[in-house]
Structures are given as C-alpha cells and as structure tokens.
Amino acid sequence: MVERLVSLSVGIMLSTSFLHALPEAFASGTDIYKLFATLLAGLFAFFLLEKLALLRHSHHHEGDGHHHAHGHDAHAAGKSGWMILVGDGMHNFTDGILIAAAFLANPELGLVTALAIVAHEIPTEIGDFIVLLNAGFSRMRAYVFNLLCSLLSVAGGLLGYYTLDRVSGLIPYVLVFASSGFIYIAVSDLMPQMQRRATVKESIPQVLLIGLGVIIVLFLTAR
Questions:
Q1: How far apart are CA 157 and CA 98, in angstroms?
Q2: Taking the model in full, what pTM does it have?
Q3: 2 Cβ contact list (under 8 Å, min separation 6)
C-alpha cells in the first residue's frame, strides 16, 4: 500500500508543480529571473536540508542483516528519534505556510497543493512512526508526538494566511519555493525508490498510478 502511495504522490506532486503552481507564479507578473532564481535556490535548499537529515532519515533496524553490536541500532535510532520529530515538525510547519500561499493565490491551486502534500506525508508519517518505535517510543507516545508534529501544519497555515494576505507580493515566490520542494522530493527521493523495483510487474502499476495522480489534479482543477 505504501509503495502504491509513493507512485501516486509522484504524479500529484509533479503535476501540481508544473501544471499549476509554477504557471500561477509566472503569470503573476513577478520578475521571471527572480522566480527562476527562487526555484534554483529552493532546489539547493532542499538538498542542504536533506544533507542535514531534516527531510529524510536513513537508519538501520535491529535484525536488518548488518553486523552491529547488540543494541547499536536501537541506540542510534534513539538519538535520531527526537531529531526526526524536530525535522518533521519544521517540515509540517512549512507545508502549512505553502498551503496557505496556494489558497491565497487560487483556491483550486490550494486544493491540489494540499492533496500533493497529504499524498506525500502519509507514507512519510508511517515511516517516521516505525522509526520512533525503533527508537524506544511506546506506540501511544509515538502516535501522540507524530500527531503534535502534524498539528504544526495548522499553525503554519494560520501564520501564512494572516501574513501573506498582507504581503501578497511574496505569494509567487512561496509558490515557486513549494514547487522546488515537490520537484526535488519526487525526483531525488520518490522516483529512486520506484526504480529499485524494475520488473514489468512492478513498473506497470507505478506508471498507471503516476498517470492517475496527474488525472486527479487535472480533474480537481478543471474549469
């Protein structure tokens, strides 16, 4: 199920970026060179965030087949547990701001942006929950902390709505920055995961689900 959501996320995120968010930003009349510079800066920013392990977290699990001393992986995961929560909270807060900016620019764009973020966050949150359990969190504690981190998107949305509404000139830049994040995550994270399953049996559903993601976005924004 998670693998299927990854494929669907790619279609939704890329179509939201290239068919709606970027055209909306570039049609705003904002300096095109500044918008492209924002896109480039956004790609570099997400690359650096990934390097700092704020967007993705690689880790080993006990019994993963690697030869470590007993408890080594649990100890490493324990250290990363809180880091994951901090990174996830910051990510969710930013997502809230991006959704607010999209709704302020165009309600339809806001809808597909929210859909793109939700489609990506479901498999991400499942992965984070598993890591927190591996880090020693109880199921209830992991659930509560994940929920609190998710609620930060609401705080980001409120802040973005009341702030960006007064400085509407920033909205095109926020949309471009959001697009850079969607593109980076889809191309550098999700697609490589899909390429690991190169059999025809796995590839056909992947292609179909990417296409379904594009169709969903087009349907939701059809005029």
A1: 7
A2: 0.76
A3: 122, 123, 126, 127
